[in-house]
């Protein structure tokens, strides 16, 4: 998730979902990634696919308990660069710290460097055959990779707050997938070995940043054509009538963007699988068949139990 401002400023219906890609999008990315893995990895990941899917949103949840979490989800490229390509920000963390200092980097987001850190951790977990860590780190890394693919995660104008387009963040990453993901073709092909993740990540950031022109420009253009009364509509959610981006407006926007949301979601999934694969490969391709992280059945029951307890606790506090 980008920043607290997003939650406050977006419409009520998307407020709980105003996370990066929305919960729905993140789950789709991690789930689809499993099917791009080679057979040597597929059996293990398929066994724990529910865990990897459900925990794809952990990094957003952690924001509430860990003050260092928020900056791991974005980078304000426009703070550093006047125009593309991105060639003034040091691509390596130690150099970046030397140039800008940790505080400046944290203030403007660290997603590319954090993905590299996570990649090293996941490789180490494979090397140690620590399968619980493999699962957690795999779920996390899919989240950060997906965030790096979101154009609005590369600008300080992340919710259109400086261009009169409040709400565009969740419109792009939550409302559009919510409406149209049923028609997405999520066959993403086979993952591949990544020679230089650093190079690849910065290319993704570069591409995300390059998409911003159309993300913001097309919304503005369509808003003029539709006018406020056709741009917005009302939908009933949980018994309340709430303001939403109208379906026709959303459809026109998705078409104008040439299905950019679907394309970036698919790329996120393929990249996620490829990073998992690269970590496993670099760790010496440990045999995963027969290894367990936990008993999926038991774990599900335990989590259900916890949810029930939390629900009861919530009721007592009301
Ligand atoms: Zn996020």
Structure description:
The protein has 318 residues and is mostly helical. The chain has a single domain, classed as P1 Nuclease (Orthogonal Bundle), CATH 1.10.575.10. The two termini are 28 Å apart. It has helices spanning 4-9, 22-34, 39-47, 49-54, 58-62, 77-80, 93-100, 102-107, 111-127, 131-148, 168-180, 197-231, 247-256, 260-282, 296-317; strands at 232-237, 240-245. The model is unreliable at 1-19 and 314-318 (pLDDT under 50). Helix 9 crosses helix 12, helix 11 (168-180) crosses helix 13 and helix 12 runs antiparallel to helix 13 (247-256). The structure holds zinc ion (ZN). Zinc ion binds next to helix 5 and helix 10.
Secondary structure: elements and pairs:
Elements: H1 4-9, H2 22-34, H3 39-47, H4 49-54, H5 58-62, H6 77-80, H7 93-100, H8 102-107, H9 111-127, H10 131-148, H11 168-180, H12 197-231, E1 232-237, E2 240-245, H13 247-256, H14 260-282, H15 296-317
Antiparallel strand pairs: 1-2
Helix pairs in contact: 2-10, 2-11, 2-14, 9-10, 9-12, 9-14, 10-14, 11-13, 12-13
The structure holds zinc ion.
Sheet of most strands: 2 strands, antiparallel
| Rg, alpha carbons | 20 Å
Strand order of the largest sheet: 1-2
- According to DSSP, the number of beta strands is 2
Short characterization:
Helix content is 61%, strand content 4%. With 318 residues, the protein is mainly alpha-helical.
């Amino acid at each position: 998730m980008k920043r607290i401002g997003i939650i406050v400023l977006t419409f009520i219906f998307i407020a709980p979902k105003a996370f990066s890609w929305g919960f729905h999008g993140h789950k789709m990315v991690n789930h689809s990634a499993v099917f791009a893995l080679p057979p040597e990895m597929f059996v293990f990941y398929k066994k724990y696919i529910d865990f990897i899917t459900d925990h794809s949103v952990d990094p957003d949840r952690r924001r509430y308990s860990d003050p260092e979490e928020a900056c791991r989800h974005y980078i304000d490229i426009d703070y550093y660069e006047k125009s593309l390509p991105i060639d003034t920000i040091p691509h390596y963390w130690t150099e970046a710290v030397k140039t800008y200092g940790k505080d400046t980097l944290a203030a403007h987001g660290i997603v590319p460097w954090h993905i590299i850190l996570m990649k090293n951790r996941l490789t180490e977990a494979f090397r140690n055959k620590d399968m619980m860590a493999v699962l957690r780190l795999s779920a996390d890394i899919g989240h950060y990779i997906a965030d790096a693919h979101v154009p609005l995660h590369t600008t300080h104008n992340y919710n259109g707050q400086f261009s009169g387009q409040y709400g565009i963040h969740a419109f792009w990453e939550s409302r559009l997938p919510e409406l149209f993901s049923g028609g997405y073709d999520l066959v993403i092909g086979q993952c591949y070995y990544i020679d230089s993740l650093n190079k690849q990540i910065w290319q993704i950031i570069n591409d995300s940043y390059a998409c911003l022109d159309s993300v913001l420009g097309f919304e503005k253009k369509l808003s003029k054509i539709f006018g406020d009364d056709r741009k917005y509509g009302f939908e009933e959610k949980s018994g309340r009538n709430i303001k939403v981006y109208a379906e026709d407006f959303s459809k026109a926007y998705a078409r104008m963007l040439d299905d950019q949301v679907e394309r970036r979601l698919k790329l996120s999934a393929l990249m996620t699988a490829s990073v998992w694969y690269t970590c496993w490969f670099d760790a010496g391709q440990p045999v995963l068949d027969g290894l367990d992280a936990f008993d999926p059945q038991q774990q599900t029951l335990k989590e259900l139990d916890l949810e029930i307890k939390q629900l009861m606790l919530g009721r007592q506090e009301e």
